[in-house]
Structure formats: structure tokens, C-alpha cells
Amino acid sequence: MNRALVRGSRTVAIIAWRPLDKRKRANGCAIKIVNPVLYCADWYFILMDVLAVLEWEPHNLTRVDLACDLNYFVGGLRPDTFIRKYVCRSDASYIRHGSNKWALYGIKEMHCTVFDSIRWGSRSSGVSVYLYNKTKELREKKDKPWIREAWNKALLSSTLDVWRVEISITSQGLGLRSIGDDVLHTLFIDDLRTPEYLQNMFLTYASRYFKFFRTDRDAKRKRDLKEVQLLPVLKDPKFKPTSIAEYINGGRMERIISNKLFDVVEYLQARDFPNKYETIDAIRKAEVAFNSMYHIKASCHQAETALEGAMVRDICGEFGERRSEAYLERLRWARLHIEQITQIAKEQARDALRTTLDVP
Questions:
Q1: FRET label pair with 286: which of 11, 84, 279, 301, CA 20 to 30 Å apart?
Q2: What DSSP string describes 39-105?
Q3: Residue among 304, 305, 306 at smallest CA distance from 336
Q4: Which pLDDT tens digit goes with each residue over 285-321?
Q5: Rounded CA gap, 99 and 102, in Å?
Q6: CA separation for the pair 124, 60 (Å, rounded)
């Protein structure tokens, strides 16, 4: 069953409940914001109004798709030319920062091959990037006048094909690290509330996941290559995409645990069994408790490193032996304090896991 939610004279959302799919939660409910609203500058405030009417509050994000539409890249390079050079040429080509595994879609015609889209990253990865011909999609599947209207407002050419760079972010890719103070931040809906915020967040993720270099036969490593500017550069970035494992400088074990918990949830969601959703919720709470423990641990070690660095600079500077001894005493106290906090964090996480999973 579903019902439209109207604001003024236009439909802004569809509310659906009692799903026919047995794999869905029987008492579940879904809100779908209609596509035209997502192309409005005030989409965030419309969504907040919808949630306020229903007395709901957003808690976290499970997936975010950020997109940029363009006729050509910075410098005039056409997207179809970029794809062809990236895929087909060994010289005067491009190579991507990070993984260069890709999936390509197109059509083979009598005298040429036309590439329609390319994807970097698997569908199960934390962040995947798509580059595809949006004009062709609208022409062959379903035309959406509100998208063309948005293109006209953005002064995109109507005689050239419009291509879309789309960054798809799942729960594994929501981690951000503050450049100013190195604090971990999780991408939330408030970070996308205005067009400026939305653009900044897109460029923040693009700076890592849509980053390419021009190939050079004489270069032996990627860092020796010259970066190709395809999109505008964010002048004053506030965040840098990261992951929990990267943030805590964790080793192989932390990464395995985090990935396994995610894989278990994905496995269970595709199956039907008693108490399915209660089990999935418990595992997700366990994942949150695990990550929280390492957030605290990371903050402790970060504070210790900063304090130790400041003390070493003073000790090696112009201060005398008396003040150096005082600093060293503070350093020993700080290390003891951090060990105590870390132990408390472990005990809290252990208690949370026991309560959540109901294990002895």
C-alpha cells in the first residue's frame, strides 16, 4: 500500500507500507522522495518537513549518491574521449589513483564502438564511481523534463550530450577525517543541506575516488606521474575521505572484523529466517560498539602523540633540565591516563556486545 504526501500543490513523497516482498520487514515503512524534488535547491528542507509531519528523525545514512552533470571536463576534454583513451590506449592515456579495475558498457556498431558508461569499484565496495551518458539514458529509457530544466539553469549545452559523474557511497564509505584537527566524522544528511555543501562534499570524494594521472613511459611509479585536472578543485577542503581502519591506523585484524560484520549483514538480508531483523539489528549494534571502541582508542593515541610531540620540542629546545623533568613527568602521567581510558573503552564495548548479542 502507498499514499502520496502533498506539499502545496505538488507531490513531494510517496509513503509505502505492508510490503508484498516477504524478505522485507512486515511492519516496515518506506518514504520515497519523488525525483523532481531532488533537483530542487531546497530538497533538504522539504525532506525535513516530511519527517517532521511523520514525527520521524534521521539517525544515519546507508547509501548516498552524489552526482555532477557536465558536457566536458575542465580543460575541454570530452568524457567519451576520456573513456576511450583510458581503456584503449597505452600511450597518451590515463591511470586512476587507487584501483584500476573497471566495468565498461557500450555497443559495437558496423564501423565503430560507442562507450556509454564505465564504473570503477565493485557494487559491494564502500565507494564506487560511475561515468555515463545521461542524455542517452533519458533518450532511451525515460525522459525527465525536470532534469533538462536543471541543465538549462546550469547553462549546459543542449546540443552536446550531458555526461554524469556519479559517486555512490555505502555505509562502508561514509567515513571522513577533518583536515584541521584530524577528528573522525561520519557523513550525515546535514552535510548535504545546501547546494554549496553538496558541491563541496562531491568534490571532497572526487578528490580521492575520481583522481587520474597522465601516463608516462619513463615513470616507474604513480606518484611520478602528473595529475590530470578533470573537475574543479575544492579551494578550502574541510574533510578527507577515510575509513575506520585508516583512521585508527589499524592493522589487518581490525579491517577483517569490520568487513566481516558488514558481510554477515549483507548475507542475512538476502535470506528469510525467524527473527531476521532482530538479528540484523543486533549485529549492526555490535558493529557500532566495535567502531566506538576504536574511535575512543584513536582519540587517546592522537592526544598522546600531540602531547608527546609538544614536550619533545620543548625538551630539545632552550629550556633547562628542571623544566624538562617536569614535562617528562606529565608525559608519563598522560600515558597512564590513556591506558586507563583505553581499558574503560574496551570494557564498555565488551558490555555493549554482551547486552546486544545476549551472550555470556
A1: 301
A2: TSTTHHHHHHHHHHHHT------SEEEEEEEESS-TTS--HHHHHHHHHH-SSS-EEESS---EEEE
A3: 304
A4: 676 666 666 666 666 666 666 666 665 565 555 555 5
A5: 9
A6: 19
